[in-house]
Amino acid sequence: MPRLAVPLTDAKCDSAKPREKDYTLFDGQGLYLLVKSRGTKVWRMKYTRPDGRAGLATFGNYPAVGLKMARHRRADALELLAKGIDPVESARQAKQDAEQARRHTFEAIAREWHAASAGKWKQHHADSVLRRLEIHIFLELGTRPIADLKTRDLLSPLKKIEKRGTLDTANRMGQYLAKIMRFAVQQGYIDSNPAADLLGATATRRVEHRPALPLERLPEFLQRIDAYRGHPLTRIAIELSLLVFTRSSELRFARWDEIDFERALWTIPGTRESIEGVRYSSRGMKMETPHLVPLSRQSLVLAEKAQQLTGRFELIFAGKSSFWKPMSENTVNAALRRMGYDTKSEVCGHGFRAMACSALVESGLWSHDAVERQMSHQERNNVRAAYIHKAEHIHERRLMMQWWADYLDNCRARFVTPYEFAHPELTSDKVSRLGQA
Q1: pLDDT digit string (tens) for 365-394?
Q2: Is 247 one of the annotated active-site residues of the chain?
Q3: Which pTM does this prediction carry?
């Protein structure tokens, strides 16, 4: 039967003096005060580990750790032992977790995610992502242990951005947070992703489509282009943009070596060599994969006219004052305004894409895949994309681009619906036509 110890008192602990050799004062249930010869007094506890081996725990020095606190720590240790947990091992793990939390802050893991992702991005995009995180997120969450963050913590900086009215930024930051926390789960820093519930937590801006003219107004529009008396290269840019309906930067940064006159084909590269002093001049295709644009007879005529003006330069649409720089991104829209159009509500250069797409679909002649491929829209279904990414539909698209150019020429005299133009055998004088008095 174990010897029963007389519980210690504060007075007895205070009065314990050092001796020639270390000695102990027992309090019971394994707890004792070790009085060392040097005068130091240390709380310790003997116990039996869950695996049967002898264990020894240290609770700190007296009087920094008083008798009451030492007994409290003994109670905690006994509670862990009752659950089959070694208190010393538990304390070691807690210390390790605390150290890991100190090192694994949100900013540290976010930068690790950024470094892992940056190899898939262009440099300017990688720089932009990190700069946004530094401005909008790190100031509030950067020093926090990533394992401590809850959904409400992640939502806090997003709501502050939202209050400033920059809704696009708020939603973009939400996407970054979701990716960073998913990365943390994958790397074993956290067990679950608290950003999963951020979806829909911030307001989104109502999508505003770029203005485009109804097809019924094509005769009026084409007549105004014919009457345009501005710079010849600007008029060519408007007409060619309408015929090929590419994005603005894809046309503005076009080089002559991208045009194959013999094959009547314009190959827009995924990226282009940047032009010093011109922002985003390295842009090629939006998805950074080469895109083929079959050129109709009308497009080739315009390209030949442009070649007479800028053929000695690298850029097709060279600037008026600086031939090594492209024409301004505002050139086409400025010309449309001089032609009498409101580019915010009636039509803008980007709206040509919607006009062409609408006519091609309404004609009923062309496959969905061919239209989407010519619009250079990325397939959202990844499985389907894996099967069709090599399918250029180039022969159908050649016919389609020529049909669109011919349709525009036909509409110079009077409007005909795309379906009527595609199916002349179905027309009848007894059927009223849109756009006719």
Answers
A1: 999 999 999 998 654 444 333 333 444 789
A2: yes
A3: 0.58
